[in-house]
Design goal:
Blueprint: H1 2-45, H2 47-56, H3 79-113, H4 116-126, H5 132-138, H6 143-162, H7 164-168
Helix pairs in contact: 1-6, 2-3, 3-4, 3-6, 4-6, 5-6
Length: 170
């Protein structure tokens, strides 16, 4: 009789553990999905700043634009610091190239689906830096619609940017 009770207790515990694990996994997926969305939105929010960084960052003595060559002693030339700036510029260039190609894919997909206005809302907000109100006026729709479209596009863009991480979280 005692063995039967112990077996029932074990089954209840096992079921509770499985339920807890499922809930934990569900919460983690939600957290991860929010993180992907947040990171995608952050990338797009700073898209133009990142492009400017690539264009205007000085990573070489030749980037200074001085007509006279500056003579630098070997000790004065902090190679590690310069290398760090160059690496930052290269990483930014790679990321922006990845964002650009992902945006192009997203644009083609929306055009193919016949809903290019969703992509245009994203582009106008983050790249053209227009307000939701201006975009709504230009696309002849409501502000809430523009917000919804932008969020949809950020979700889809997250998949293109983060690959399997974006897909498995959906």
């Amino acid at each position: 009789m005692l063995e039967l009770e112990e077996m029932n207790i074990c089954k209840v515990i096992e079921k509770a553990v499985k339920t807890a694990i499922k809930e934990y996994d569900k919460e983690q997926k939600s957290i991860d999905k929010k993180r992907v969305f947040h990171n995608t939105k952050l990338l797009m929010k700073h898209y133009n700043d990142l492009k400017s960084h690539i264009i205007y960052s000085i990573s070489d003595i030749n980037d200074i634009g001085v007509t006279d060559k500056i003579e630098l002693e070997k000790e004065e030339y902090d190679e590690l610091y310069i290398l760090s700036i160059k690496q930052s510029k290269v990483k930014t260039l790679i990321m922006i190239s990845h964002v650009d190609s992902s945006l192009e894919i997203l644009k083609k997909e929306q055009r193919k689906k016949g809903v290019i206005e969703k992509y245009l809302a994203l582009e106008k907000l983050f790249i053209d830096e227009k307000t939701y109100e201006t975009i709504a006026e230009e696309l002849n729709c409501g502000v809430i619609t523009v917000r919804r479209w932008v969020n949809e596009m950020l979700d889809e863009l997250g998949i293109y940017l983060f690959g399997i991480e974006g897909i498995k979280l959906s």
